[in-house]
């Protein structure tokens, strides 16, 4: 191996190590750096599958069963260029997030809604009380309500 070969090998190692840290659903996102910084700050993981990007579930250090019914809220009216790096700080202000699922289009934009599951029921109720009509951007209010487990299908944006 020549000096040039070893220099090239050393310079490519950190790049490949950094690329390996970025999950598939996050790599190439317009706000990739902000999402990576969020994951590093919180210790949560993020993965994209089946049209949704999952943040957390379970949180770092979680011991015990899955949160009970009533711990999840539905978040609607999300601007299509808002992602987890803006949503998580808002929703973690009212309680510990177990999991946030942001519904995504194939073009990389969000679909305008998400589900946030908290570790405890009282945190979900507080989120509805305090974050419904929260102004995420000037003139853009979020709609936050309790999520209910049911077998009905919602069809929107027709």
From TrEMBL:
It holds the Pfam family RRM_1. Residues 8-23 have a biased composition (Low complexity). SUPFAM superfamilies: RNA-binding domain, RBD. Residues 1-23 are annotated as: Disordered. The keyword RNA-binding applies. One of its GO terms (molecular function) is RNA binding. Keywords: RNA-binding. Residues 71-144 form the RRM domain. SMART domains: RRM. It comes from the Eukaryota. This is RNA binding motif protein 47. It comes from Chinchilla lanigera. The gene is RBM47.
């Amino acid at each position: 191996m020549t000096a040039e070969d070893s220099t090239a090998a050393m310079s490519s190692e950190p790049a490949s190590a950094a690329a390996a840290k970025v999950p598939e659903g996050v790599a190439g996102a317009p706000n990739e750096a902000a999402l990576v910084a969020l994951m590093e700050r919180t210790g949560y993981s993020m993965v994209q599958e089946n049209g949704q990007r999952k943040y957390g579930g379970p949180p770092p250090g979680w011991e015990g069963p899955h949160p009970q019914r009533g711990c999840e809220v539905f978040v609607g009216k999300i601007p299509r260029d808002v992602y987890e790096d803006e949503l998580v700080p808002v929703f973690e202000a009212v309680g510990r997030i177990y999991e946030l699922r942001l519904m995504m289009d194939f073009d990389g934009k969000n679909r305008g809604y998400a589900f946030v599951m908290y570790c405890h029921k009282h945190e979900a109720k507080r989120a509805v009380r305090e974050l419904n009509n929260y102004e995420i951007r000037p003139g853009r209010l979020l709609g936050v309500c309790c999520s209910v487990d049911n077998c009905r299908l919602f069809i929107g944006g027709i």
